[in-house]
Amino acid sequence: MGSEHELPLDTPILYLKSEEAFAGLTSRERHYAHHLSRASWWGGLIVLCQTSPESPVAFSLLTRLFRSQPLDTLKELSIVRIDEFKSLVIHIEVLIVYIGYYLGINLVKCVGNNSFFPLIASSFRAADEYDNYIEITHTEMYRFENAKTFLTVGPNFQDMILFFTFNCFEEDADLAKDYMADRNIEAWNNRLLKYEEDGQTILDIRLASIEQGAAEGITVESDEFKGHKFRVSRGDYANFLRKLNEELTLAKEHTANETEGKMLDKYIECFTRGCLQAHKDGSSHWVKNKSPAVETYMGFIEVYRDPTNQRAEFESFVAVVNREQSRKFDTLVARAEKEFLQLLPWAREFEEDTFLRPDFSSLDILTFASSGLPIGINIPNYKDVKEEHGFKNVSLSNVMAARTGVKGGPFLSEADLSLREKYGATSLEIQVGLHELLGHGCGKFLRVKDDGTLNFDKDKLKNPFTGEPVTYYPKGENYNTKFTNISSAYEECRAETVAMYLGLVNDILDVFGITDEDKEDIKYISWLDMFYAGLRGLEMYQPAQGKWGQAHSQARYVILRVGLEAGEGLVDVVETTGEDGLPDLRLSVDRTKIPTVGHKAMGDFLNKLQVYRSMGDSDAGRAMFEKYSEVPTEGSHPFGKWHEIVVRKRRPRMCLTMPNTRVVGEEVELVSYVDGPESMVESWVDRFAPQDHDFLENFLTQTANAWNK
């Protein structure tokens, strides 16, 4: 097991502060936030069941250990050496931060060393029934064949993510994709199961829901497609969804308006029946609920972890709106359609007919239940909801503040590090705002509408690169089904490039209150940071599989390659020798070339990204994107060779402990914690009340037994 599979013992664990924001809530709003947070944490446990077989078993086992014996008691056990105790604590950090053993940032398996297992075994000596759970968890956790080290697609899905049963092959996933497109079924909230029944192979599309059994318009008992038997069933994750809905029902008693009530009703319907349309309807109500004091969104949202980029991981957040921070983005949104979107490099026909003004909020996170914690989000991800009702952009201000507090870094000159420290937080705020508000919010999909008509003039619009008629999305197809495994990275690359391109506009910098004397430094740091992220993101590449494990990192690496291809010294990476005598790297950017060479190169690239996306031309889009995604081992920039340097020089990634809420009398209080790994463990022990222990114990038994079958 290599170091990339171990979270360092010195990993920084910080507390995510939200006390000031929470203090500004009314009693009603605090109760609303409390029940939404409880719902979120129950739903978040679904991610364990979406990741790998040992994850839910290990979670149940370790949380029982920490519930039964306080940390101080475990630390004082005579058999424990201090490194073993630290290893145990860091181990559970991985499990609870990423809700499983595969890092949300790069999908690499990360379990730490196994020196703490004697501690677990001794702690459960009186409970023989746990011996089997300990054994199977240890065995599976420390299997490191290729298929067990990286959450991606291989020759088949065996030993991979649990969006598929282990006997599914790539051709099964492709067949299911074609079937769902033909039957107008979207994959967000389902898994693909494959099994034998009465001598026939069944491909079962299993929906997440509390209810089981037949439901008109939702399930299909038997269907045939291209000579294969299909079924659409439901009932996945029922136990967790039942707990989630109980809390949503309680939250309804504290809503601020009718729209919030309708939103929660639709969420409850979706999670009860497995009806995706109900979640789309709930998302529409969510978009209409402008600038609430307490913001929340939950469901099966992001497809980053599915090798085919179709099935979504459960995600839920609860946050308090930072109104003062949100006001500065109002002008940007108000001027977007008539001014700023006009500056983008593609023809007007490839832009939406009407820019649906998004609702932008700067939020302080109370709860974020998923495998990753971003700094900005553009949702909902349903293209039809976005086109008809609009979308929301959220910037997670307290998360951003925590991350920009980390200083220094490899591969840059002292002068650049000094400028990043001075302007990095402001630059990041602008980059995230442009990325989420305009990057994800711009651009049109040429498609067949529900009434069978086209949303563009087929006779007039031509492919600007070939002069031929444009292609478009037929009914039943969408961006994810066309661009499949590159869709997430491609879209993130497009949004990042929009932010770089528009970040050079002085009028936009005026919106953010940047003084004339600081504008050129802000532009420089924005571009330097993007190229720097592309270089550091190389650690997310897995040479053995030839795969990228994280969409944002792949996107930024592609942007770096585009910058290098532009030439003329815009950006360069050279190999050097470090103070330790080992190979090192140095990245540099010529700020004088950004408004000329850089602006043209990124404009040309961005135009292609958008036009291929608009037309659904996945062949051309894929060819271009995969060319820039290559990691060469030779040439002027041998990134394959430099991968070892980037991995060796990487720094521990910060993890954040979130607060809890609890009802005391008739009021809701925020439970705060301090920095450090032990506080994170304490927060998870506090998260589930004593009456929930039996549920978690039963969950342990069920998942362990299912895993053994």
TrEMBL record:
<keyword id="KW-0862">Zinc</keyword>
<keyword id="KW-0963">Cytoplasm</keyword>
<keyword id="KW-0482">Metalloprotease</keyword>
<comment type="similarity">
    <text>Belongs to the peptidase M49 family.</text>
</comment>
<feature type="binding site">
    <location>
        <position position="492"/>
    </location>
    <ligand>
        <name>Zn(2+)</name>
    </ligand>
</feature>
<dbReference type="GO" id="GO:0004177">
    <property type="term" value="F:aminopeptidase activity"/>
</dbReference>
<feature type="binding site">
    <location>
        <position position="440"/>
    </location>
    <ligand>
        <name>Zn(2+)</name>
    </ligand>
</feature>
<protein>
    <recommendedName>
        <fullName>Dipeptidyl peptidase 3</fullName>
        <ecNumber>3.4.14.4</ecNumber>
    </recommendedName>
</protein>
<keyword id="KW-0645">Protease</keyword>
<keyword id="KW-0479">Metal-binding</keyword>
<dbReference type="GO" id="GO:0008239">
    <property type="term" value="F:dipeptidyl-peptidase activity"/>
</dbReference>
<dbReference type="InterPro" id="IPR005317">
    <property type="entry name" value="Dipeptidyl-peptase3"/>
</dbReference>
<dbReference type="Pfam" id="PF03571">
    <property type="entry name" value="Peptidase_M49"/>
</dbReference>
<dbReference type="GO" id="GO:0008235">
    <property type="term" value="F:metalloexopeptidase activity"/>
</dbReference>
<feature type="binding site">
    <location>
        <position position="435"/>
    </location>
    <ligand>
        <name>Zn(2+)</name>
    </ligand>
</feature>
<dbReference type="GO" id="GO:0046872">
    <property type="term" value="F:metal ion binding"/>
</dbReference>
<keyword id="KW-0031">Aminopeptidase</keyword>
<dbReference type="GO" id="GO:0006508">
    <property type="term" value="P:proteolysis"/>
</dbReference>
<dbReference type="GO" id="GO:0005737">
    <property type="term" value="C:cytoplasm"/>
</dbReference>
<keyword id="KW-0378">Hydrolase</keyword>
<dbReference type="InterPro" id="IPR039461">
    <property type="entry name" value="Peptidase_M49"/>
</dbReference>
<feature type="active site">
    <location>
        <position position="436"/>
    </location>
</feature>
